Amino acid sequence: MADPKKALPGNAPGDFFVDSSCIGCHNCSDLAPDIFGEVEDHFYLVVKRQPANEDEIHRTLQALVCCPKGSIGIIGSRGTRARYDIKSIIEEFPLEISKDVYYLGFNSDKSAGAKSFFIASEGGNWMVEAPKFQERTLKWIESRGGLSHIFLSHRDDVAQADLFAGYFKAKRIIHQDDLEAQPGAEIVINGLEPVAFGDDFLVIPTPGHTMGHCVLLHKETHLFTGDMLTSKERFGDPIEAWKPELCWWSWERQTESIGKLINYSFTVMIPSHGRIWRDTSANMTEHLRRCVERCHSETDTNLR
Ligand SMILES: [Fe+2]
Q1: Mean pLDDT rounded to a whole number for the chain
Q2: Cα distance between the two ends of the chain
Q3: pLDDT of residue 271
């Protein structure tokens, strides 16, 4: 629970605040981009503007209940807090974000607050990354028929995927080069060739952010990009790479991997951290080309 005594400097005065336990996962700024923002030259986010209408309050409360560290709070008396119906916000989750695709909410701090998703599929449902292992999420997934596969984009975002795999008898998918993060994974991707799972799912190895990073393409529509890509974070562009300091293995290889995605068709980009972007396939190709050009011009500050 957020502590008002530890409220970060830079919070706009008002009911909502972020405290010093924030890990900068950006989930709040994805859900409520007008309300939460990163403080320049710091890793954390604050309430840059208090919500001013019902919709903004709603989004702010969604961010509050999904914050992996519980860093977002409401200042004031019990009466002030009672004005906000947090219980009904919790019950809204998971959120449908696209046909058959849901944001599960309740990000885990064990994956630095990565978002996780549920994909309904006739051949067996998939989960992308892993949220908090909690009853509400388990029951909801159970009500949809459980899970057959859990796609793990890379080592950072596995959280408690092993518990979900055990509970649902699901198969975890991770690349060999990030396998040490989930050594019991049932399906291990090797090398650089894409691997198809039926007609609807394609795992594409995209080394760079980590050696074993992969993305998942669903029905040539949804591209789950793990930690490789985000949207409108630094340059206001629909597709961007996270800054070089957050590329743990090889910026050059990551740039190559982004270029490889130009060969695929998709219309919804879904990052594990960062905003979802929807566009035509042709526009996505152009956004990727621009992203690759920009990556070539940036310096890898983590040269190994
Ligand atoms: Fe990561």
Answers
A1: 93
A2: 39
A3: 96
CATH at 35: 3.30.70.20
Question: Containing domain of residue 55, as a range?
Answer: 4-90
Interval between CA 127 and ligand 1 midpoint (Å)? 17
Centre of ligand 1 to C-alpha 177, Å, is: 14
Residue 28 lies in a domain: yes
> Does 11 share its domain with 147?
no
Q: Check which CATH number belongs to the domain holding 256 and give it.
A: 3.60.15.10
Q: What is the pLDDT of residue 78?
A: 66
Q: Which of 97, 217, 226, 100 is nearest to 155 (CA)?
A: 226
Let me know: does 159 contact 131? Beta carbons within 8 Å. Answer: yes
Q: What percent of the chain has pLDDT above 70?
A: 96
7: CA distance to ligand 1 center in Å? 27
Q: What's the 166 CA to ligand 1 centre distance in angstroms?
A: 24
pLDDT at 225 > cutoff 80: yes
Residue 225: inside a domain: yes
CA angle 71, 150, 214 (to 5 degrees): 85
Question: Ligand 1 mean position to 71 CA, how many Å?
Answer: 20
Per the CB < 8 A criterion, the answer to whether 106 and 134 are in contact is yes
Greater model confidence, 79 or 222:
222
Instruction: Give me ligand 1 centre to Cα 111, in Å.
Output: 8
**Chosen domain end from 90, 109, 134:** 90
Three-state DSSP at 12 gives coil
Domain co-membership, 144 together with 263? yes
For 77-132, the pLDDT digits (tens) are 666 667 788 899 999 999 999 999 999 999 999 999 999 999 999 999 999 999 99
Q: How far is the CA of 65 from the centre of ligand 1 (A)?
A: 22
